[in-house]
Amino acid sequence: MIDDIFNLLYNAMYESAWIAVLASFGWGILSILLSPCHLSSIPLVVGFITSQGKISVAGTFIISLVFSTGILITIAVIGIITALLGRLMGDIGSVGNYLVAGIFLVVGLYLLGLIKFDWNFGLKQTQSKGLAAALLLGLLFGLALGPCTFAFMAPVLGVVFETAQTNYLLAVIFLLAFAVGHCSVIVGAGTLTGKVQKYLNWSEESKVILWIKRICGILVILGGVYLVYTSN
Question: Hey, where are the domains in the chain?
Fold first, then answer.
């Protein structure tokens, strides 16, 4: 079933421009849903948002967007650097995985309530609350996603490199479509969390919120364990 979906999207990349753009967008979505590495971003962003207390739905959307943008920035930088060094795109060795696993451990323990940490870095203003931490988490998380992301991007990149020889703008659009699809799942999960929280009028001290944070904390720690396991 999954192989059929991949084959369908791959063949669609060689259809008309707009169908190829939609296929690239779909590939970006699947890069989150079908990868254990990327799926760990969901409990991470959900747990982080619930730890911010009561914020608007627009605020949760912005935090999720900033977090996913941080991921994309790191992945782009890693791709460029590793390509210039002649290494497999995204391959930064096991160091990145161990670093992100450590971050996951800290975040997981924080969500479980076992340690205290000011993720707002002293920024108490409503407009800036959580954004700096969300960007930092996204940048760090992107380190471990390099190999996973470029493995999923390989078919798209093949079409992009081929298309760039005759139509550079269309090649860029393919990459942007993949990025939007990739981010949409993370942003959607974070925004949905904000909508549910607002609709049910949950506060930071609500029992349901506390259990969501604990569950996310366990999942984030397990994500870190998986990163260490796959780096060996």
Answer: 2-231
Q: Who's near 106: CB < 8 A, 6+ residues apart?
A: 115, 117
Neighbours of 186 (CB within 10 A): 23
Q: And the tokens for 49?
A: 């948002």
Residue 57 to residue 74: CA distance in whole angstroms:
26
Burial class (CB in 10 A: 0-12, 13-18, 19+), 95: exposed
pLDDT in tens, 181-223: 888 888 888 888 877 777 666 655 667 777 888 888 888 888 8
Please report, for the chain, how many H helices and E strands are present, in that order.
9, 0
φ, ψ for residue 23, nearest 5 deg: -65, -40
pLDDT in tens, 24-39: 888 888 878 877 777 7
Q: Give residue 87's identity as a one-letter amino acid code.
A: R
The CA-based dihedral angle spanning residues 159, 149, 10, 160, taken in that order and rounded to the nearest 10 degrees: -10
Q: What string of H, E and C letters represents the secondary structure of 149-167?
A: HHHHHHHHHHHHHHHHCCC
